[in-house]
Write the structure tokens for this entry.
Amino acid sequence: MRILVLGGTRFVGRAIVAECLERGHEPTLLHRGKSGPELFANCHHILADRDGGLDELGKNTWDAVVDTSGYIPRIVQQSVDALSGRCDRYLFISTISVYSETGPGGPSENSARSVLQDPHTETIDAETYGGLKARCEDVVASFAGTPIIVRPGLVVGPYDPTDRFTYWVVRASEGDFLVPEDTNSRIQFIDARDLAAFAVRLLEAGKPTTVNAVGPAASLGWTAFADSLTSVCGGKPVWAPPTFLTEQRVEPWIDLPLWLAGEDSQGMDRVSNALGLSLGLTLRPREETIADTLSWRRRGSGEALKTGMSMDRHAALIHQLKTGTK
């Protein structure tokens, strides 16, 4: 298939282009040339801003489009309008953040979605992100062809710009690492390469679909996750009781990425992947993702992590737990 990728040089888009090439497809990348312009030199690149710059598409046609960079409904509408009638399939990378608060069972594809308080806002923040993506989904649903909507959870692995998963790999590789002693919390994520493979398979199938893309296949708690980190990175977990973390004002997800504290998670750590698995979603062992992330990190610049607590604070909290001091 001839596939237009809106994006294609960063993280998820990069993985999707690589998967397209691996499966014998012909990707075209539309991007601004600001990140990774040297990637995929043998592919056709269209340098343009998707907001107002789609005239650069010319009169070309494709079999399918993959939208990895749609966050604002107005901008997604431009690509839907420009490509309707020029390709058959439109796959949109959305997010599980479209779901509004749910019970402890976690959301499935039919669960209620977030609604923006201000339907005209284009400000992307923690309050608006899910609602904006939900409205983008509605725009894609109007595509004159086959709309496919994929809702991943936290996407992880090599080239992750957020460092939320990488935080754990780095801390475990440094030695002792702080882990929440939370038996209720669960951990969900998907390797970008698994997300890419699933997306391309859905394009190949060519059926209108809305589906979650989260892993692992079975419920994952902190003990099993810590064991995997230890087996790959060598560090040892230091378990922190919830009362200690509360006293030390350790914020779930912010100071300790991936941690959605127990009852406060509202089921968002238990998103259903049953439909995805039935449609061919495959998930590599988490140890492979950990090892590849560590290898990628070691090849990089070693710059400070973008999220999670600092190394000094991390060390101080571990010292307190081990010595009982404050």
